[in-house]
């Protein structure tokens, strides 16, 4: 595989080398499958001790007593960190510096805000001693009644939702649209709290050296973590060195540094030794974020022709009693379907849980299952096939803004997935199909969409005397294969073979790559890498073209093309020179340059940028037992340029499985009396296991998008959930004729 980089900066003229687009297996795959990948908790610096968090078993009230003496008497226990005995912090953990500085529970008081909140930290020579010490604390509480569920308190309008979107958006006149309709749907859907459950729990190994801090801890955003930790401890962010080479999953829960991670750092400061703190699975149900509960009312009006006259999407979401994260559940209704009137609105209710957080497709996932169900209901009310109904109401421009789409190959997604699935044979009426065992068979579909976002990230490129290249960027690989894709982009950016470059990543000592979130990491860091590569090759070209001894002399920057480690004159390919030759003659050891990837405000103001997809699902329902099995899933997605088809397939499959999980499995059940989550473990918090996952097919539809970013990447991390959850739910309706509006759909609701 060789690579070519065209030095012309105009994106319309960009060509790419052959690394982008290859189905490479993970560059870190061997390390992972041989157990050599070192995750945060695998680190054991000399002199390290163990910290274990004692958590609250009440959801609201105060801790009135802790038997610290009993814990300290236990052999091996070194110290017990409590609100009365802890290192001073430079900043109030409840202060709000910016929208991403979420409030944290760092033992600042005896107040309990939610079950599983940290109330003390025991530090000991062994994990066993620390665990036993935590048990010996025998806390006593003053208990207040926990506020639980969507009706826990008075609803209020949040200031903004998501990462700063308006809580209410109006386009056209909803009342007039509904009044003019000949058919109306008015339906209310509920989605449960979900918890991220990354395979690797949050963990930290913290080592202080004076006012420098060395951390092994998983992070989806190391620079933001440095800022937050630096603020809390009063040290410059640059003094904080984070290693986060492998994350073991994140799904948003490692996007912001969490309270337990900071408690591990505090413990290390308190005892003056390296400390390891790892959350138990159950302890992840509280302090590290979750997807909040939603209740969504959707009203749809249609004319006799099946065209929408109004789409009104209202969402009530839960948030914590002490902070402000609001799931933007209704927002995805801005983009998909054309309607003269669209309104989205949010209200919130404060409950006694940890603060919710971004969780894979935050807002889009919760909103999509409700909206795609409602669209299915509207199509059925009109007597129109659900695919035909969606095509009738296809948005040619973004309905709420009127902007053209930067690209939108959704029609092709519908067509390809429907064809593959065999959708044309679907009977319109439900309960018409049975399999050979007498099980009811249903077919449903949903439309997928997720915004094509860009954050800001940086990269540094080096070409060395031997002609090899290095690309550096502190990017984050949650397990999705980002490093692999970024390595491919790096090789093309430097016009070198994969074997001739090193891609360095996974620590905060490298250029800030921004945050791995919003399905935007490959696009953002990829653009930074692309720009850094172009800049370093421009420097190399400058060295050559300004030197009369070079065969490239006088060619000028635009007259040179980089290919396979050589620069060629554009007008005479035979006149060329290797990177190593250019550097040797110039007498320099290396050339280096930096690049940044960021959103283009001009393009963003002009275009609506979204990835799209269509998912078709088959389910079988046992008519006597109500057992539901998904038996087939077909998805087609258009998400701009595909960097690595293997990784992309895997991401989309993972998303679709999460969609299936959303529809049929996943739910955190809270005890209404205690405010504790009853199934805070992977045995009872159901996610699909292999036996639940049906044969799946993922189709990617070619899409060239010259506007989203230099490489035309839209991102694939989250979109897979969004169409799939609704498709499965709609298939259950089609199998049974029963419309379930509370998710996940349960056996007892379909018999
Ligand atoms: Mo994602 S929920 O933006 O990690």
From TrEMBL:
Residue ranges constituting the Aldehyde oxidase/xanthine dehydrogenase a/b hammerhead domain according to the UniProt record: 34-145
Region (Disordered): 1-28
Biased composition range(s): Polar residues: 19-28
Gene3D superfamilies membership: Aldehyde oxidase/xanthine dehydrogenase, a/b hammerhead (3.90.1170.50), Aldehyde oxidase/xanthine dehydrogenase, molybdopterin binding domain (3.30.365.10)
InterPro entries: Ald_Oxase/Xan_DH_a/b, Ald_Oxase/Xan_DH_a/b_sf, Ald_Oxase/xanthine_DH-like, AldOxase/xan_DH_MoCoBD1, AldOxase/xan_DH_MoCoBD2, AldOxase/xan_DH_Mopterin-bd_sf
Name this protein carries in UniProt: Xanthine dehydrogenase family protein molybdopterin-binding subunit
A Pfam family matched in the record: Ald_Xan_dh_C
């Amino acid at each position: 595989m060789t690579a070519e980089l065209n030095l012309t900066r105009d994106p319309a003229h960009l060509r790419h080398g052959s690394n982008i687009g290859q189905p490479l297996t993970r560059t870190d795959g061997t390390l992972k499958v041989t157990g050599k990948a070192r995750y945060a908790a695998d680190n054991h610096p000399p002199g390290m001790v163990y910290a274990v968090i004692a958590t609250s078993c009440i959801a609201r009230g105060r801790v009135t007593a802790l038997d610290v003496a009993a814990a300290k008497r236990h052999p091996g226990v070194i110290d017990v960190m409590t609100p009365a005995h802890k290192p001073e912090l430079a900043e109030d953990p409840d202060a709000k510096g910016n929208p991403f500085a979420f409030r944290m529970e760092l033992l600042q008081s005896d107040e309990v805000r939610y079950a599983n909140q940290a109330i003390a930290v025991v530090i000991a020579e062994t994990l066993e001693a620390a665990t036993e010490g935590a048990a010996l604390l025998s806390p006593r509480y003053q208990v207040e009644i926990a506020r639980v569920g969507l009706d826990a308190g008075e609803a209020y309008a949040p200031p903004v939702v998501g990462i700063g979107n308006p809580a209410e958006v109006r386009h056209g006149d909803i009342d007039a649209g509904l009044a003019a309709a000949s058919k109306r749907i008015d339906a209310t859907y509920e989605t449960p709290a979900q918890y991220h459950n990354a395979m690797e729990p949050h963990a930290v190994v913290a080592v202080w050296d004076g006012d420098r801090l060395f951390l092994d801890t998983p992070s989806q955003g190391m620079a933001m973590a440095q800022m937050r930790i630096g603020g809390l401890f009063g040290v410059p962010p640059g003094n904080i060195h984070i290693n986060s080479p492998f994350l073991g999953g994140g799904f948003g829960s490692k996007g912001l540094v969490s309270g337990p991670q900071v408690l591990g750092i505090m413990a290390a400061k308190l005892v003056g030794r390296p400390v390891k703190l790892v959350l138990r699975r159950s302890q992840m149900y509280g302090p590290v974020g979750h997807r909040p509960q939603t209740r969504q009312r959707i009203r749809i009006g249609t004319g006799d022709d099946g065209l929408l006259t109004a789409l009104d999407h209202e969402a009530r979401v839960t948030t914590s009693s002490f902070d402000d994260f609001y799931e933007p559940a209704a927002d995805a209704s801005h983009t998909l379907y054309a309607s003269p009137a669209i309104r989205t609105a949010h209200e919130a209710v404060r409950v006694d849980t940890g603060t919710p957080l971004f969780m894979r497709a935050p807002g889009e996932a919760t909103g999509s299952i409700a909206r795609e169900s409602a669209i299915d209901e509207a199509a059925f009310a009109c007597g129109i096939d659900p695919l035909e109904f969606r095509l009738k109401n296809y948005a040619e421009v973004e309905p709420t803004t009127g902007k053209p789409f930067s690209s939108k190959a959704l029609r092709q997604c519908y067509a390809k997935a429907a064809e593959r699935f065999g959708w044309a044979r679907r009977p319109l009426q439900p309960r018409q199909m049975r399999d050979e065992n007498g099980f009811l068979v249903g077919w449903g579909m949903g439309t997928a969409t997720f915004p094509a976002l860009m954050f800001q990230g940086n990269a540094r490129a080096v070409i060395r005397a031997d002609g090899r290249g290095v690309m550096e960027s502190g990017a984050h690989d949650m397990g999705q294969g980002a490093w692999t894709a970024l390595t491919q982009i790096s090789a093309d950016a430097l016009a070198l073979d994969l074997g001739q470059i090193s891609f360095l990543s996974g620590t905060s000592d490298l250029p800030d790559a921004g945050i791995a979130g919003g399905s935007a990491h490959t696009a953002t860091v990829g653009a930074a890498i692309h720009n850094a590569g172009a800049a370093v090759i421009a420097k190399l070209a400058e060295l050559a073209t300004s030197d009369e001894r070079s065969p490239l002399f006088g060619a000028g920057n635009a007259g040179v093309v980089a290919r396979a480690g050589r620069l060629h004159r554009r007008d005479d390919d035979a006149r060329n020179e290797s990177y190593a030759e250019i550097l040797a003659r110039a007498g320099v050891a290396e050339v280096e340059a930096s690049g940044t990837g960021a959103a283009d405000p001009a393009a963003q103001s002009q275009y609506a940028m979204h990835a799209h997809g269509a998912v078709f699902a088959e389910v079988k329902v046992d008519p006597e037992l109500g057992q539901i099995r998904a038996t087939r899933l077909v998805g087609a997605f258009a998400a701009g340029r595909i960097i690595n088809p293997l990784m992309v397939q895997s991401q989309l499959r993972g998303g679709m499985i999460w969609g299936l999980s959303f529809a049929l499995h996943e739910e955190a059940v809270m005890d209404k009396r205690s405010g504790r989550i009853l199934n805070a473990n992977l045995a009872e918090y159901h996610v699909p296991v292999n036996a639940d996952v049906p044969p799946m097919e993922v189709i990617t539809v070619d899409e060239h998008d010259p506007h989203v970013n230099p490489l035309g990447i839209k991102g694939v991390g989250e979109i897979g959930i969004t169409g799939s959850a609704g498709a499965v739910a709609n298939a259950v309706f089609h199998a049974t004729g029963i419309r379930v509006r509370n998710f996940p759909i349960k056996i007892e609701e379909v018999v």
